[in-house]
Amino acid sequence: MAIVEEIPGTTRDRQYADVEWGGSVFTLVDTGGLVTDPSDEITKQIQTQAQVAMVEADVIVLVTDILTGITAPDHAIADILRRTAKPIVLAVNKADNLKREIDLPEFYALGMGDPLPISALQGVGTGELLEAIVANLPTMPAEEEEPDVLH
For the whole model, what pTM was predicted? Predict the structure, then answer.
């Protein structure tokens, strides 16, 4: 369902999808992401959509790019996300081969825990990403069954 495009800012609205993984059911929300200095009205609206999604989220996934490495905006966004006090999973995209995964340790500098190598385009590492999301979801109380009693 995600729009895959090389042009930054392609995703503008929140995209919702219900997911079932490992016996857990949750809603995944894809946003246009956070920017550190929204410069125009469209970017400001994309930022607002991402902020709404952060407030609603139980777990946040920070997606970075192994080809560009850690950028100054990555550090700034990591600081913003840490202030939410929500569990954060760090996904490092475009890590679709061992040669690229060599650069993975660099991403520890973001202070987000273990970086997960993924390739969104090829589906590499997505199972591990879903496992990490599920592991960080809050536990829901079991639904109580109503006794079969006449009212």
Answer: 0.81
